[in-house]
Amino acid sequence: MKSHARVVVIGGGVVGCSILYHLTKFGWTDVVLVERSELTSGSTWHAAGGMHTINGDPNVAKLQKYTVELYKEIEAYSGQDVGLHMTSGLMLAATNERFDWFKSLLAKGKYAGGEARLVSVEEAHAMMPLLDPKEFVGAVFDPHEGHLDPYGTTHAYAQSAKKNGAEIYLHTKVEELIQLPDGMWRVVTDKGEIRAEHVVNAAGLWAREVGRMVGLELPVLAMEHMYLITEDMPEVIEFNQKSGRELMHCVDFDGEIYIRQERNGMLMGTYEKDCRPWSPIETPWTFGHELLAEDIERISGELEVGFRHFPAFNNAGIKTIINGPFTFSPDGNPLVGPVRGMTNFWSACAVMAGFSQGGGVGLALAQWIINGDPGFDVFAMDVCRYGDYATLGYTNAKVRENYSRRFSIRYPNEELPGARPLLTTPVYDKLKAAGAVFGASYGLETPLWFAPEGVEDTFSWRRSTDFEHVGNEAKAVRVSAGMMETSGFAKYLIAGEGARSWLDRMLAGRIPQEGRMALTPMLNEAGKLIGDFTLAALEDDEFLLIGSGIAEDYHMRWFEQHLPEDGSVEVDALNLGLLGLSVAGPKARDVLQKLTHLDLSDKAVPFMSVREIDLGMAPVILGRVSYTGDLGYEIWMKPEYQRYLFDLIMEAGEEFGISLFGLRALNALRVEKSFGSWSREYRPLYGPLEAGLGRFIVHGKSADFIGKQAALEEKASGGTLRLITLIVDAGDADVIGDEPISLNGEVRGWVTSGGYAHASGVSVAMCYVPKEIAEVVDGWQIEILGEMLPARLQPVPLFDANGSRMRS
C-alpha cells in the first residue's frame, strides 16, 4: 500500500470508481481508492441498472446525458464489457394531469437538444405491446434510455482508472480519518495508513459512518427497495423474434412501477407508499453482498396496478425477488462537493440513480477538486444545500416522504408536509391565525400567501385557488402598504479591522460607507455569479450582508475558504438569531413614522441607507430598501422583539389599510420590476453583464476582487447572453421556469422564472436569450403545457420604470 497519495476515494461502488477515473482522466494519477470488501459490494451490485437522461432539473439532465454517453468510451478504453442495452424508453401517463406534467418536462429539454417526444397511446402500445392501452392517455418516448450491467460498468471505470495510473485497494477498511495541522489527512485503514491531500467520501451505504469519523452527520438514509424478475414470458420471446430487438424500458408513474426486459422475462420494480428505512441509525460494517428479506406483501398494491396495466404479468411466474438497500437524501438528489468547515474533505453520496448520474457526479467532483470549481451549476446536488436543521430525524421523515412520492406529481404550487413544521419564528402563530399558507425553505416555515377562511391551496399546473388572493395581496402593496416576514433571508455579520478590505475583494460591487447600503454581486474566478447581496455598513468595520436563505451554507463555505489567516475578519451566519419584517408600499413611511420620533423623510433616511434606531421600544436595524421595487423598508431585530414589533406595525398601519403578504405576492411584485432572484436568474451559469447586473460591478476599483479579470473580459466582449423580460399571452397557466423560448419558430432561449404580475394585469417571463436578439420586440413564443403562446419584449420594468417611487 502507498504511504502517500494526492486523493483517497473511500468506496468502491459505481460513484467512487467514476470519481477515480475522472481524476486520472484530467491528469491526477497519484490517486487511490480503498474499499472495505469487493467493488460493487454496497448498493451497486443489486441495482436494476436502469438509466435515462430526462430530469426535471435541466442541469442535472445534462449530467445524466453525459453519463449515458460515457459508457461506450469507458468500455472501449478499459476493454471491460459494460453490458449496455440502449433499448429506448417510455414514460406513461394514466391521467391528463400527468400528461400535462410530461408536456412541461419535455419543454424543459428542448433548448438543450433533447430528443424525447410525446406519443399517443396507440403509438406507445405499438412500441410496448405488453401495456394495456385502455389504462393510459399518452406517453413520452425517449431514445436515450436502457440498462446495463452494474458489475461490468463499475469495473470498466475501475480498469480505466488503473490504466491511467490509479491504485485500488480491496478488503481495506477505513477505520479513522484524522486531519493534521498542515491540512493533510491521515487515512487509517486496517492494512496501514495513507497520507492524503484530499479525501472523498463515496462510501454509499456507509457514507454516514465515514462522515461521523470527522464529526459530520450527513442527511442520508438507506431505504429498502424491491423489484422482481419473472420467469421466461412467451410474449417477450415473441416480440424479440418478430422485431429483432428488446422490449423497451417503461416507467408507469401513476402505477408507481418501472419495468424492463431481463433475459427472456421482465423486471418490475416499485417505489411503494408503505416504504421502509433500512438500518436508520447505523449501517453495520459486516453487511456486504447480501439481500434483505423479501416482503412481497408490502408492495402488493403497486404490483396489482402493475399487473392490471401490463396484463401479461398475470400469467408470468416470479423467478426472483430482490430487496436491497439504496441511499437517499431528503430531496432525492445526490450530496456532492466540499464539506463546509473542513479542508479538502469531499462528499459524493446519496447518488440513488448511480447509473444515470454516476458519470456526471464523477466529472463534477473531479473538476471541483482539481480546478476549485465543478465547471457548471450543480447547486441542486451540492451538499451545502442543507443546514444543521437536517438532523437524523428530519432526514428520516423527508427521505421516507420522497421515496414514497418518487413517481408522484410535484405541482409547482405544492408544499410537502414531511418533517414540518420544524423551524418557526415568534410570529408563526399570528401568521397562521391570519390564514397563512406556509412553505418550508431551508427548514423554516415561511408564509406563501394568506387564505380567507374556507379557501384551501389546490395543487395544479394551472392557476389555482390562490390566484385571486395573491393578487389582492400584491395590489394592496402597490396601493397602500403591506408587511411580510423576511426571516428566511440569510443574514451575515462581517466585522473586524480587515472587514472592509476583505469585502472589497470578495464582492464585485461598491462597498458602502457607514450608514449606507449597496447591492453587490459575488463572482467566482470564472466571473460567473455565485451570489447577489444587499450590503449594509453599520459601522466602518462592521457590515450586515443579506442574501438568499437557501444558499446560506453554500455562501458560508465560500466565505470561510477565503478568510484571512490573521484573524482580522470574522463572519457569522446569524440565521434565526436575527429576524426580519418588511413594510412596503406608498404608505410604508407613514406607518413606520408613527413608531419613532426620528425623522424618516427621504432627506433624513434616503434610499439605500441604513439606521440603527428604536421602533416603539424595540431596537432594530432599519434599511431603506425593498425587493418589491416600491417604497419600502427592511427591519431586522432580535427574536425576542419580533412579536412586539409585528403587533406594533399592524396597529400603526390599520388607518392606512395595511395588509399581510407572502412570497407569492412578492414574486408577482418583483417580476413587475424585472428583479432577478438567486438560483434562477443569478447562478454560476451567467456573467453579471449577461444577468443585467453589470451596472453593479465596479470594474475599475483598486481591489483585485475575485473574478475581476473575467468580468473585464465579459465587459469587453459583451458576453453571449442577455436576461430579458417578456409579456406572455397566457391563458390559465403561467411560466414556472425552464420553458423554451422560440423566435420565429426556432428555439433560442429559456425561461428562468416568472408568473402573473397582478398589479399590472399581465403574465411575465424572465428569460435568457443570445445578446444579438435581445432587443427584438415581437415574434417570440413560449411553450406552456404544450401550447405555443405569443410573447413580446418588455424593454423597461412594468412598474415604476425610472425607480422614482422606491427613491421618493
TrEMBL record:
Residues 6-368 form the FAD dependent oxidoreductase domain. Residues 722-800 form the Aminomethyltransferase C-terminal domain. Its EC number is 1.5.8.4. It holds the Pfam family GCV_T_C. The keyword Nucleotide-binding does not apply. SUPFAM superfamilies: Aminomethyltransferase beta-barrel domain (SSF101790), FAD-linked reductases, C-terminal domain (SSF54373), FAD/NAD(P)-binding domain (SSF51905), Folate-binding domain (SSF103025). Residues 428-698 form the GCVT N-terminal domain. Residues 371-424 form the FAD dependent oxidoreductase central domain. The keyword RNA-binding does not apply. Belongs to the GcvT family. This is Dimethylglycine dehydrogenase. The lineage of its organism: Bacteria, Pseudomonadati, Pseudomonadota, Alphaproteobacteria, Hyphomicrobiales.
